[in-house]
């Protein structure tokens, strides 16, 4: 067992933040040996309960749960910052050409290491990832995540039509490959698999039907896709599936809305769509930097909360512009604030933080597993330095409340705030051990 004395940020079941200004976080093995959080709370209340346990004192630091990224594209690392007229030209001009290179095992393997380095450097310890449409891209990412003992969920993209040579897959083979990948990776250590139809316009009816059948056969795996991101995309989807009530309803018609299904964007929704998400137990991945960069629109927080549609935050790299949860939370604040096209809200900073940690874990069905500092959660946490830059130091020195402290970090912070990252009970050094087999 090991304990850390510092300020703590954690959340109760309602998502209310708890700030222990002088706190103690105790890490120790669970029943099966997995490093877990054994206790989190005030130092004064807890210190007598763990005699003999070494305590590392981290004055001036804030211990917080590792962030979760609910939607990120592993093969789009080098697509970040590629401007286009909108989503569909962006896919054609930049995204598909880049993703086509991930059929190469060597390239995928190298990029997996860079991708995981970036996530971790920014304090993201769990991610729901799109690989490319090529099996080696999934194998490379999963193998790299397993070596680092990360809790990571990923899937092979399904796209058997309206996609260029190099990324288009074959209907039958794509489903066979998906089932084989589920068998190979789902539940291996901390890894999970996500059935990943790219979006309805890139998938034939047969492919969507097959994906839905897999989702029914493998209830524990996740499902991920995109929906209602961009007006041209929506018109296209409606033309291709004229019988569906809405774009979202296409996925429902194929059995792809269920618990553990996470849909990116969910911008241009009506209340019936929001209620359908809620009733099926599906969640939205809100991707504000992407939506601002590609000019897609503004997620309607008021609508989501009024109907009770679950959601959490995501980078959507490479449509998104940053791996940094601080940048994503700030963009989410701007998006919430926008009040010309939908009701404008001023989202409290602790609420933004919850959406990227415990709230995101709830959206994934992993509440109590990751995303919080509470007994039983896996030991993924961050040591944050609220005075990491001169301006942050000035600003946080006179923060009078938790809200002021968190807002200063959201507005002024980035990877420099993330001083140390603990994954599964061990602090990261630099690169993971090399030389392990990729399968
Ligand atoms: N819709 C279909 N594919 C993609 C993608 O790669 N990124 C985004 N943002 N939307 C998509
Ligand atoms: Zn995306």
Task: Walk me through the structure.
The chain has helices at 43-46, 87-100, 105-121, 135-147, 171-185, 205-217, 231-240, 247-253, 271-280, 288-293, 301-307, 325-337, 349-355, 358-364, 390-397, 402-412, and strands at residues 2-11, 17-29, 35-42, 54-65, 67-73, 124-130, 151-155, 157-158, 192-197, 222-227, 261-265, 283-286, 311-313, 381-384, 418-423, 426-427. The protein is α/β, with parallel strands linked by helices. It folds into two domains: 2-65 and 373-427, Urease, subunit C, domain 1; 67-364, TIM Barrel. Strands 5, 6, 7, 8, 9, 10, 11, 12 and 13 form a nine-stranded parallel sheet that branches. The chain has a seven-stranded mixed sheet with strand order 3-2-1-4-14-15-16. Helix 3 packs across helix 4 and helix 5 (171-185) packs parallel to helix 6. The longest helix has 17 residues, at 105-121. It is globular, with a radius of gyration of 21 Å. Zinc ion (ZN) is lined by residues 71, 73, 226, 264, 316, 319.
